[in-house]
Every structure is written in C-alpha cells, then in structure tokens.
Amino acid sequence: MPISFDITGFRQLDQTTWQHANGDHVVLEYYDLVPDLPAGLDDLPKLRHDLAELHSKDGCLIEAHVVQLAGVPALLRIIKVPLPNRPAGQGFLCSFTVPKATCSAVLQLIAPEGPVSGMREAALAPEVGFERWIMQHPYAPQLQGKLPFHAGDDPRFDSRFPDHPLSRARAWAHHVVRTARLDPQFAALPPFQPNAQQNLPPEVAGLLNSQLVTAVCGVPVGGHIALQIGERTTYWKMPDGHLLSRLGRGNLSRSPLSDGRFRDVIMVDEQSGQALLMDRFMTDGKSLGVQTQLQPVTREAAYAAVTNDTLREAYRWVGRMIEVADGRREYLTLEPVVNQGERVDPFAMMALRNHEGEDIVVVSCSPAPSQNTPFQGTPGMNAPVSRETLQGIGELAMSAMLEWGPHPLDMAITFTRYGDGIESQGTPESLTGEARAMFTGAPATVVPGMAVGGYVALQQGEQRTYWRLPDDDLAHRLGFGVLARAHSPGHRFRDVLLIDQRTGDLLVPHRYSEDGSTAGSRTTVVQVSPEEAMAAATPEACKEAFERLGWAVLSAAKRGEHLFVERLENELRQDPYVRLAVLSLFDEDPVAVASASPAPSAKTQFNDLPTLEAPASADNILSLGPLALQAINDWGLHPLHVVPTYHRPTR
C-alpha cells in the first residue's frame, strides 16, 4: 500500500483495516482515479471553503490543513458527523489524502463517541458562554450545516478531555505526521493538479501516456548522470541544461528513502529518453514539470566523460548545494546511488553549523579517509562559511569518495531533514500547549508588513491595525525566512504572527518544528493610531528598514527564493510590485535584479525602466532594498503598507 503508519495499539482486521481497543478504526484506501478535490493543495483558502460546503451536507468540517507526509504534501481534514442509527452522538473522521495526478491514497481514522455522548459540550458550553457557543465557520462564514461549528471543538480543550474522540483524532494526526511513510514509487508520481489534463501543453500531456518509470538521480558529472531505476543503475547523457539546473535545489520531486531522507527523482521513458522533471511543489495547474530529452549511453561511455576537470567542477557544485539545503533545514549526504534505505558506509555528510557564534561548513566521513587524503586519517573537517569553503568541502568529499572506490558517477546526494525541520502551520489550531498558554484570550493569525521606525502594520483579512514594537527583535526577523508562513497560490508565502488583539500578546512563531505544530517566542505590542505609526516612518527609519531588506534578499536567494515587495492587502500578485532577486547565486556569474511593475519614473534610479540588473556583489545586493523604497515612494505607497512576499520559482 502507498502509506505505511505506526499500528501500535491497533489490531489488523484485514488488509486495509485496523481497530483500536478504544473502538477507533483506521482504514487505508487507494483510488486509481483522478482525485476529486475541489482545488489544489496550493490554494488552501478555496480548498477549505469548498470542503466546508461539501461536508456541511452531512456534518461539519472542523479543520483542514496542508501537511507533509514523509516530505510529500497531503490534505489533513477533521470532520464530525452524526452517528447513524443513534438518537445522539457524533463520529469524528480524521483523514490524510495524498493526491497525485491520476490517483490518490487516503488514510482515515474513525473515532466515534461512546454510549454516553455530549460530555465535552456539556462541560464547556456554560464556561464559554451560551451566547458565544455557536460560531461562524472560519472557512465559510455564511455556511449553515447539518452540525454547527462551535467553540467546544477548539484544540485548546483537548488536553482537558484526552479520551474524547476529537482529542484522540488530533493526537493520532500529530503522530501520523511524525511517523508515516510513503512508498517511494507512489511518492514520486506527478502531483495532483486541478484540471491538469485539460491545461497541460500537448507535449507534456503526451508524456503521461508514455512508459514513464521513476528514476533516482545520481551526481551529474561531465554532462552525464546515473539514474537508479529499481535495482538497475542506468547511464544517460544530458543534451541540455534543464536537469542540471534543477538538481539539488529542493524543487524536484523526491523519493523518500527512510525517516527524513530523500533524493531527487524524475520520470523517464527508457525507450525514447523522454523525461519529465516533476515539480516538487504545486504549480499553476498548467504543467506538472519540465520536459527534457535524455540520451541513454553505456556505462563505459558515461565513465569516459569523467575527467579531472569535470569531476572537480561537479563536486564544487555539490558543495554549493549545502547552503541551499540549509535554507530548508536539511543537510546533504554523499553516498552510493544503489543505497536505497538507511544510511550505511561509505558516506560523507556535509552541513552548515553554528559553532560559538560562527557559521561553519563541515564534512564528516565514514569510514575515515586515510592519511593519503586531505583528511589525513581524521573523519571530518570544517571551515568558516564562504563561497570558496563551500566548494572546497565538496572537493574534500570527492577525495574521500575516490578512496572508497565507487565511481564518481555512481554517487548520489541524499537530503536529510533535521529533526525540527517540518514546516510549522502558524495557526491557532496548531499551537503547542506551551505556546497556547502564552495567551489569556483567543489568538488570531495576522500578516505583518515592513517594520519601520519601531512600528508595524498587521493585516487580518480586510482589517489593518498598527502596533508599537517593544524592541528591534521582530524587525530583524521579518523577511528572513525564519518565521512560520502563510501560503498563497503560485508558490507565494508571507511571514505570519499570532496575536491577541485585546491584550497585545504576540507570538513570533518559529518556521520549523518537529511535527508541524507551532511554537515561538512571546512579546507584547501596543496598538496605536495609524497617524502615530505612519509619523514614525521618517526618511532615516525607512532607509534603515529597506537596507535591512537587502540582506533579506540575499537570505532568500540562498533558499532559492525571490522577494516581492507589494501591497499588504494584496493576496495575489498585482501591480504595483517590485521583484528583488539574485539570479544564479551558486553559479559563476550571479546577477542582482530589481524588476518593478509599473516602471518607476525618471525621478528614481529606475529612470522609467522596468528592470535594473548588476553583478551580484555584496553592495549591489544590499542596494536592492533601497531601490524598492524608491519605487514605492514613486507610486505613493506608505512604507508601512507594503510586505515582502517570498516566491519560490520552479522554472
């Protein structure tokens, strides 16, 4: 089956059904059909709205989230329904749906109330207040369903009612997120795209009908690459740069090897050489990835392309990918491509670390290379982080690999996720107990704009409020990819915060956690008038804030992202905006780019041009922030009313 999970405490009834002693059932199903989800996983607002309407006919959707199962996006939803053939009582259904282009897998827990029902509601309704018990549905405010959306289903009450079926369902969901595994071939299938078949370019749609197989990618050397297809190692020439430009960046589809270990995979037709480079993340629905053509060659021909120069270039590239991986809370392991499970010797682990306040790059090998190598018999080496040392670490790993004996083409990069490397959801429902205890009231998720002069604007739906910050801590975190994020269509993300607007209690949520739950640091902010906040945006304060944005652009580039500076209220990209990026950061000639729409006037450095480019020196990268400030001033936008939006390009 495509999903495996921890069955501790469950008794297997048949091939797809398990029963727990408490009466809960788990069912695992595979559907060989195009998923019938109303929207893609990258359009969570629409998906939630339409699912709320769908489930209102039979019960009520309590919550829906996009989570990661073994590194693959999945839909988690919890619904409640009346129990059939009983005058009272509810059942709670918690399901994970992993949708693919032409099929899906669903893992579902069914947790019914026992003979005595309604105990949770009876205890909480007087406490919450009967007038506040029934609430508007958060995903569809005008919805009237068969069962009401009410305050008693809030996850903050689960710890008080641990044996309630809803509490059991949520606890099971958290455990599944941490422990579930996917079959590698199922995980590598093209992702689900609503109406993808109708919108695909003909050449890519044709690929879906060819004899595509999943292939695990090795390290490319000299224009050639090894692809592991099942137990066979095959060799291919790469006539163009499509595959090379996507390997190692974290944007290709992945095959899970074991807990938190992944490799790049593609789909290839062994007869024709047609290949589909599948996007790991959801796209705009018009394509599943990039098509390219590979040429099958013999092992001898592939090995012949490996020279001292091509080998050195390849492993310097491996070193540069260490920094890209670190931006995803991952590290790299260089190991034989035939190893498809847990890590075994030989291997070279490469990562960034912070040691006594200094960022260093490290390589650790097993077995330890001999005295005849730069390691001189030690298992590892390290150096302060720089472009040169990153590339050098790749070459050190190469020297170890050459001593171990596998041919350089027969090695692969494995991405390994740190234990705390799962994206936090950044929602009130996902707060840890400790984080929830920081609030005396009900927190809400808000999107912060630029922090300028000690003030920040917070956007919640159509409502905007202004707040005075107690210190510079938040200002130095916004825009740097370290906070929990809100996802929007088109690979767009923004920092989020959680605030109780009544008290000003604010949680600055960490981007990553061990299980997708949300934790962070607490501070207190003071609400002020728009006039007070905007008056603090002096020219000096704006200059400081947008110079800091230049550093954020560099940080984003290391994660393979661009920054868009745009209106705080705009969820989708629309004029006016400025795109700030460093293109080809890890290549020989990176370029700093500021691209604005509409083109700023001649009063700015843009001088009526839509795009400015320059070599990506440190000074030029840092100047991108002030360029954005010139543009928004030219358009008449207040600096507090714009927000940096992360964009992850897949092309």
SSE topology:
Layout: E1 3-4, E2 10-14, E3 17-20, E4 25-31, H1 44-56, E5 60-69, E6 72-82, E7 90-99, E8 104-112, H2 119-128, H3 165-179, E9 181-182, H4 184-187, H5 196-199, H6 202-207, E10 212-217, E11 224-229, E12 232-237, E13 254-258, E14 261-269, E15 274-278, E16 289-293, E17 295-297, H7 299-304, H8 308-326, E18 330-336, E19 347-355, E20 358-366, E21 380-384, H9 387-404, E22 411-417, E23 422-423, H10 433-436, E24 444-448, E25 455-460, E26 463-468, E27 485-488, E28 492-495, E29 497-500, E30 505-509, E31 512-513, E32 520-524, E33 526-528, H11 530-535, H12 539-558, E34 562-567, E35 577-583, E36 591-597, E37 611-615, H13 618-622, H14 624-635, E38 642-647
Antiparallel strand pairs: 1-9, 2-3, 3-4, 4-8, 5-6, 6-7, 7-8, 10-11, 10-14, 11-12, 12-17, 13-14, 14-15, 14-22, 15-16, 18-19, 18-22, 19-20, 20-21, 23-31, 24-25, 24-29, 25-26, 26-33, 27-28, 28-38, 29-30, 30-32, 34-35, 34-38, 35-36, 36-37
Helix pairs in contact: 8-9, 12-14
Question: Describe it for me?
Answer:
The chain is an alpha+beta fold. It has 14 helices and 38 strands. Strands 10, 11, 12, 13, 14, 15, 16, 17, 18, 19, 20, 21 and 22 form a 13-stranded antiparallel β-sheet that branches. Strands 2-3-4-8-7-6-5 form a 7-stranded antiparallel β-sheet, sandwiched between helices. It has a 7-stranded antiparallel β-sheet with strand order 32-30-29-24-25-26-33. β14 and β15 form a beta hairpin. It is globular and about 75 Å long. The two termini are 33 Å apart. 43% of the residues are buried.
